[in-house]
Amino acid sequence: MLRIGTFFTAHRISLLGLLFSLAVGLIAAGQAQAAPGQLRIGTLAPKNSLYHRQLMEVGEAWRSAQGEGAKYLVYPDGSQGGETDMARRMRIGQLQGALLSVVGLREIEPSISALQNMPLLFRSWDEVDYVREKMRPAIEKKFLDKGFVVLAWGDAGWVRFFSKEPAVRPDDYRKMKFFAWAGESEQQDIMKSLGYTPVPLETSDILPSIQTGMISAVPATPYFALASQVYATAGHMLDINWAPIVGALVVTKKSWDEMSPAARDALKAAGTRAGLQMRTQARKEVDEAVAAMKKRGLQVHTPNPEQMKEWNTLAEQLYPRIRGKMVPAETFDEVMKLLKDYRAGKR
């Protein structure tokens, strides 16, 4: 049915999903190769948002350590395209880094999708943190082998379902038209196989599409729904933690190797601090965003135990379809084992 961060997503929304409309056209500066001593960082995150501010702080630390001639530029608001576009731009040298959700990160290393694309699997942020920390060294090694250095891990809240009509059961959504990411044929195929109607679009199309009726439901984090004003048209939210939106700040190994040792140390330390801030503040902003939208008319629907059982049954139906298709089978099994150990107290 839904794509977990995006699968009914989201955060792709994300980074983090998540976040705002994609801009129009290429920025001229982004079309040329950067000279050594210059970092160009792309993100969907809105200008002046928590994520943008953290990226700017990372840049200040790096620029100071790198020394004279160092230039650091952040392109927010999706001005460098969608997350798959930014992954491509890093590969050809038009960007040296990006803050991405799993949507973009999986273009580099598919195993990362296990942190976001398994609906209703994680019951708390503690479980997300535990699994991520256990898997982090191996995942970062895979990124490095593919030419990317992971500087920071962040997240952007839980995916909830925003719709024009009230809905509390999985069947309620079968009559709706769901936003789905364009190009994600796997997600769309799974949704269709379960009787749902995906409408493939880009992030910039979400608001006009919900307003015109092209779509009637959007999987999104509360932060995204508030910032994009999606909730003003889709005024019903299902209070269910469908999936976490997980992301990371990465830079190309080429740009990393061109830095001075002091600059690498400063960048890594600043990235670690930024990741902690993004995780801490983003989780706080989820509740704040819901409270703000409720004051402006958002109706929140919480499933009762019987309805929640239906959602868990749906998730169980999704796992065999996700394993080996949306999430590599080996990684899927590893996450399941880690969660089993965590819940058994084997930490």
Automatic annotation (TrEMBL):
Source organism superkingdom: Bacteria
GO terms of biological process kind: transmembrane transport
Lineage, broadest ranks: Bacteria, Pseudomonadati, Pseudomonadota, Betaproteobacteria, Rhodocyclales
Signal peptide start and end residues: 1-34
TM segment ranges: none
Name of the protein: C4-dicarboxylate ABC transporter substrate-binding protein
Keyword set, alphabetical order: Signal
Alphabetical list of Pfam families matching this protein: DctP
